[in-house]
Design brief:
alpha/beta, Gyrase A, domain 2, Rossmann fold, 4 domains, 4-stranded antiparallel sheet, 19 helices, 15 strands, 50% helix, globular, RNA-binding
Length: 565
RNA sequence: GCGCCUGUAGCUCAAUUGGAUAGAGCGACAGACUACGGAUCUGUAGGUUGUGGGUUCAAAUCCCGCCGGGCGCACCA
């Protein structure tokens, strides 16, 4: 068997092939006249009476042939070979669904596979080593991370884990915007705080950063350097303030993310890119390709040639570059580092920016579809029924650190992942901070801990048998709750792949909830540790593989899998 | 005004990308082990999927028009 495929994939492929062959035969015999091509999609119905696997392909063919689905389904079934397969029975249901009922052999094989792969169960090689760069958070180094950053961090990290699991080579990157106007303003703001604390009469620049954190940083700077910075010449002094502020703030952002269980593969500095002359080189290249022209004393990029609704200024009339140039340069740099596919996770305030960025890389000759932008929608903090006001202007907003302190890493990650990235979400601080059954994160963790507890109990009673799949009589697992659980566990590798492809980590949470629910049902209906040794062994085995799947899924989500709670 | 996102149970959200009777959690109500963790399980109530049309065997999903919410539309980043 193919080590890097999954049992469920092979079963589905087998069914697909049999259907394809049946369709061919039906065509030959004239039962499906004129029909050309079928996209056979196999799914697992949620209702047991609809079989283990099902497909609606007959209806699709029916609509092309202007015939009804049921008779097409009938034709397919007539020529369907069930020889040497798990398929026991095929039903035609409703408007023409084909429902496949399988013997449990495939499930036993799938469940044996979990044991063999252990922590690697769920990984596949479908991604074929494709190199993917995921850039996310990339907050300005002008203040602490906020709750939207926390959401982006959860989504980006989980997506990275999902893609890694399905055989992609993934890099997580944080882009440090340590050049440009906003860090100049940061430097001036720090200087004002510095002077204030040295007793001078200095005021913050207009629109300066008012947050308290700059006062702390000023204090530290005085602790290290005293008032010596005041004597430096203007431009050097400015650079020193800038460099100090940026390094302190980036440092603490890094700390915050580490506390979130998130480690990046790279932190890339905009300043570094500028020092290499990357923006100038990019601009030159755009000009050489004929996409730059002059108007009103400024230089413009012909982004309209790539679907933008207007051309964009790239060099202002004063001679300064706009932000677009280093940004295009940065994405060019990503391609040059050998990545096949780029994913950016951006905030909703940047969606207007996507078209011109794509235009930029298209103008340089890179395929624009290789840049994919995911917009992580806004987060609204709620406490009970009250919306928590956040105003950045007043320097008061809930930081990611405060959020983590109040709700904890696991609840935060879980909450942010529960919702599709595109949905505007309400984060209920009361609920997330609550350690009770109202908090959904515990539902999944509890299932994991409960399994650990069974094994503690088994060990104590000295009834822990050899558990390898070869020692188990799988045919003893035949209760509906056992079958249901095994089916879910068998689906995990395909789920991981599909969820990663769809870029919807929220479905991973969904999946975990389903597994936890199936386990809890199994637990109440089936006694694990009992008189019947063979049955106990089989159920212990099932509990163990369920625990493996929960642990693997939780790990991908960045949520811990506790042995006890 | 133009563009992107969005509207689903009292609340927060799903729905395998066009499939079968639209599902979970929380909240409400009614029940459940003298053994493995009750942070659990089983059931009940709760819906014209914002709205009006269209496409087809089939629409929450796709197309068009309205209505409501969020966010963008700089020689800011």
């Amino acid at each position: 068997m193919d080590e890097n495929s999954s049992v469920i994939k092979r079963v589905q492929a087998d069914i697909k092939e049999r259907i394809a062959k049946a369709i061919e035969k039906a065509k030959e015999k004239g039962d499906l006249p004129g029909y050309v091509e079928a996209d056979i999609k196999i799914h697992m119905p949620s209702k047991p009476e609809q079989g283990d696997f099902a497909t609606g392909v007959a209806m699709a063919i029916g609509s092309e042939l202007k015939s009804d689905g049921r008779s097409v389904a009938g034709a397919i079934v007539r020529y369907l070979s069930l020889e040497d397969s798990w398929i026991r029975r095929v039903d035609i249901a409703g408007p023409g669904f084909l429902n496949f009922f399988l013997s449990t052999g495939w499930l036993q094989e799938a469940v044996a596979d979990i044991w063999k792969k252990g922590p690697l169960y769920g990984t596949t090689d479908y991604g074929a080593g494709k190199k993917v760069l995921i850039e996310f958070v990339s907050a300005n180094p002008t203040g602490p991370l906020n709750v939207v950053n926390a959401r982006a961090a959860a989504i980006g990290d989980c997506l990275a884990a999902l893609l890694e699991a399905s055989g992609h080579k993934v890099s997580r990157e944080f882009y440090i915007n340590d050049a440009g106007n906003q860090v100049d303003l940061l430097a001036d703001s720090l200087e004002a705080r510095y002077r204030q604390q040295l007793g001078q009469d200095a005021s913050l620049p207009e629109n300066g950063y008012r947050g308290e954190y700059l006062m702390h940083i000023a204090k530290e700077l005085i602790g290290e350097k005293g008032d010596s910075l005041l004597e430096l010449p203007d431009s050097e002094r400015h650079d020193r303030f800038k460099q100090y502020a940026v390094s302190r703030i980036v440092g603490s952002q890094k700390q915050t993310l580490l506390g979130y269980g998130l480690e990046y593969d790279s932190w890339l500095s905009e300043k570094g890119l500028r020092a290499e002359g990357a923006p100038e080189a990019t601009l030159k290249q755009l000009a050489e390709r004929g996409f730059i022209y002059e108007k009103d004393g400024a230089q413009w990029f012909k982004s309209t040639e790539f679907g933008d609704d207007k051309d964009r200024v790239v060099v202002k009339s004063e001679g300064e570059m706009t932000y677009l140039v280093p940004d295009i340069a940065y994405h060019k740099n990503k391609f040059e580092r050998g990545f096949d596919h780029l994913i950016d996770i951006l905030g909703p305030d940047h969606h207007g920016y996507v078209t011109r960025l794509k235009a930029g890389i298209a103008a340089l000759g890179f395929p624009p579809e290789s840049l994919e932008v995911i917009i992580a929608q806004t987060v609204r903090l709620v406490r009970g029924n009250q919306v928590v006001k956040m105003s950045k202007r007043g320097g008061e907003f809930v930081t990611m650190d405060e959020l983590l302190e109040e709700a904890g890493k696991d609840a935060c990650r879980f909450f942010f992942l529960m919702r599709a990235p595109s949905s505007h979400l309400d984060f209920d601080l009361d609920l997330a901070g609550l350690q009770s059954d109202e908090n959904p994160v515990y539902y999944v963790q509890y299932a994991h801990a409960r399994i650990a507890s069974i094994f503690r109990q088994a060990r104590q009673e000295g009834v822990l048998p050899a558990l390898g799949p070869n020692e188990i009589d799988f045919s003893l697992l035949r209760e509906p709750s056992e079958i249901q659980l095994m089916k879910l566990l068998a689906a995990f590798p395909e789920e991981v792949y599909e969820i990663g492809q769809a870029r919807e980590p929220n479905r991973l949470i969904n999946y975990m909830m389903n597994v936890a629910s199936a386990f809890h049902s199994f637990y109440t209906q089936c006694r694990v540790l009992g008189e019947d040794k063979a049955l106990s062994a089989a159920r212990l085995y099932l509990a163990r593989v369920c625990q493996i799947v929960l642990a693997n899924a939780l790990r991908m989500a960045g949520v811990s899998a506790p042995e006890s709670m």
